[in-house]
Amino acid sequence: MTAPTAPAAPALTAERADLLETLAAHRHFLRFTVQGLTTEQASRRTTASELTLAGIVKHVASTEASWADFVVRGTAALQQSPEEWGEQWGLQPGETLESVLAHYDEVAARTDELVRTVDLDAAHPLPEAPWFAPGAVRSARRVFLHVVAETAQHAGHADILRESLDGQKTMG
User: Fold this and answer.
1) Domain count for the chain
2) Which domain of life is it from (predicted)?
3) What pLDDT score does 170 carry?
4) Is 6 inside any structural domain?
């Protein structure tokens, strides 16, 4: 008797491959900005902004995790208190740059698996919020595009912070 086989994963279409490649590229840029830093350095404010490198990585990981949950669970996944939102912008007691990066790796692996497997047309309504149009709906495809944009935007912010810290640039 042979063991049952797992169902085959959907074929990796060009669209899915493009999403995965683009996510990987922008995650790389973000991770590059904290390369070689200590937790103390990554937690330092280097501009007039309250942003820190560690805080940006933590926020991007948290945001990606929330949107991945939204793809699976719907609207409830995007509900968070103002305190929860605020905590994702800085390291909390016991957190380090290494722990935040490890969490980001876990989040990225889960998102990548969803990109490979979910119905990209599956959609859920967005929660009521001033930044969403009333009755707005997001497909998994659009969520993944949003994660790409969010990661790219914050990688740019991180590049400025790192250059202000020690002159290192992601490019150039």
Assistant:
1) 1
2) Bacteria
3) 80
4) no
pLDDT along the chain (172 residues), means of 10: 62 94 97 97 93 97 97 92 85 96 98 98 93 94 98 96 92 68
Say if residues 42 and 52 touch (Cβ distance below 8 Å): yes
Q: What angle do CA 57, 61, 63 make, to 5 degrees?
A: 115
pLDDT at 8: 64
The CATH number of residue 98's host domain is: 1.20.120.450
Q: Which domain holds residue 101?
A: 15-166
Does 42 reside within a domain? yes
Which 3 state secondary structure label does DSSP give 6? coil
What secondary structure does DSSP assign to 101-153, as a single string? HHHHHHHHHHHHHHHHHS-TT-EEEPPP-TTS-TT-EEEHHHHHHHHHHHHHH
Cα 148-153-158 angle, rounded to 5 deg: 120
**Token pair 């973000």: residue:** 30
In a domain? residue 5: no
pTM summary value = 0.90
Q: Does 84 reside within a domain?
A: yes
